Amino acid sequence: MNIGIDKIGCYTPHLFVDMKQLAVARDVDPGKFITGIGQEKMALAPITQDTVTLAANAALEILDEDDKEKIDLVIVGTESGIDQSKSAATYVHRLIGLKPQARTFEIKQACYGATAGIQMAKGHVALHPDRKALVIGSDIARYGLNTSGEVTQGAGAVAMLISQNPRLLAFEEHNAYATDDIMDFWRPTYSENAFVDGKFSNEQYISFFNKVWEQYKEKTQLGLADYEAICFHMPYTKMGLKALRTILDEGAEADRERLLANYEISKTYNKNIGNIYTASLYLSLLSLLENKTDLQAGARIGMYSYGSGAIGEFFSCVLQPNYRNYLYQAHHAEMFAARKEVSVTKYEEIFQEKLPTDGAAVSLNIDEDPAAIVVAGIKDHKRQYVNKTK
C-alpha cells in the first residue's frame, strides 16, 4: 500500500520585518543576516494569532468536504502550545469543521513534532486505508529582542493530509533515527523565550544528520545519485546547507550540482518566513515542490528532521504522477504578495504585546487581521477563537 502526502498547504501571518532594516537597527552588517544566516524576511505574528490559529488557517484552505468526512485523526506538532493540558488539535478540529468521530492530540519534541505525527499517521492509514489523517506543524519562534537568535525568529504552519494512494508524495519503507539526551535548545515552562547553546546545537544538528544518513544508506543501499533533492529542517536556511556539504564528496559532480541547486530552491519560503520549528522541514519541502517546476514523477526526495534535545530522523518520499495538479501554489503566492512590511519600531511594539497571564478578560480588534481564523480575546480563562468564514 502506498501511503503519503495527498495535500499540503502553509500559512504565515500577514506581517513581516525586512532583515536589512533589522540589521541596520541592530547596528549589524546586513550581509551577516542575509548571507551569513540566510534570512531575508521574518514573519511576525500579531496578538490575534497563535499556534492554534496558524494551524487552523493552514488546514482550512486545502481541505474539501470529502477530506473532512474521511479525516478521523488530527495531530498538531508544536513547541508553542497555548495550554498545558488541552491540545491545539482539539481547537483546530472544531475551527475547521471536522466530524466528532476523530482522535485529536498534540505532540511536543522540539522541531521533530510534525515528523512524529506523520509516522503515527502512516500507521493509522495502514490500519484504516479508507480514512485520512491531518498532520500540522505550527509554531512561533521567539528568542527576544536584541538577542543572538532574534534574526531566526518566525511564525507559521504547514498542514498535510496523509492518505493511501497519495497524489503528491509516497513515503518509502525505511527510516533511520537516533536519540540522545542533550541540552542544545530548550524552553522551561517559566520562560516565554527559548534558550539555545548555538554552537553546540549547530554541531549536534550536523552530527545527528551524519548518523542517520549513514544508517539510512546501510538500510537501503541508496546514495546521493538516487536523490533529486534533500530537504532539511531549517532553523535558519544556512544550517541545512552546512549539513548537506558534509556528504557532497560522496557523489559525482552532477550529484553535487543538482543537490546544491535544489537546496537553494527548497529554502525560498523559509528565508521569507523564518524559523517555524516543527513545520520548517515541511515548508522546505513545499518550497521545493512549488518552485522547482521541472521535478518529474518518480523523483526521490530525502527528508532530514531534527528536534533539539535531541532526535534526528532521515526518510524519503517519491513524487507521484501529475503531482503539480494538486498543489496550492497560486494561493500561496497570493498570501506572500499580500503581506505587509512593518518598521522595526512597529515590530518591537507588536512583539511585546501579550495576552493576559492572570486570566483577565480582554477583547482584541480582529478587523486588523485578514486571517480567516483569529484569536478574539480571553473570557473566563478561555481563549476565544473566531472563524470569520462561518
UniProtKB/TrEMBL annotation:
Q: Where is the Hydroxymethylglutaryl-coenzyme A synthase N-terminal domain?
A: 2-164
Question: Which GO terms fall under molecular function for this chain's record?
Answer: hydroxymethylglutaryl-CoA synthase activity
Tell me which InterPro entries the record gives. HMG_CoA_synt_C_dom, HMG_CoA_synth_N, HMG_CoA_synthase_prok, Thiolase-like
Query: What superkingdom does the record give?
Result: Bacteria
The Hydroxymethylglutaryl-coenzyme A synthase C-terminal domain extends over 180-248, 266-353
Q: Which UniProt keywords apply?
A: Acyltransferase, Transferase
Q: What Enzyme Commission number does this protein have? A: 2.3.3.10
Enzyme category, top tier: transferase
**Is Acyltransferase among the key words of this record?**
yes
The UniProt entry's sequence similarity note says: Belongs to the thiolase-like superfamily. HMG-CoA synthase family.
- Protein name in UniProt: Hydroxymethylglutaryl-CoA synthase
Q: Which organism is it from?
A: Tigheibacillus jepli
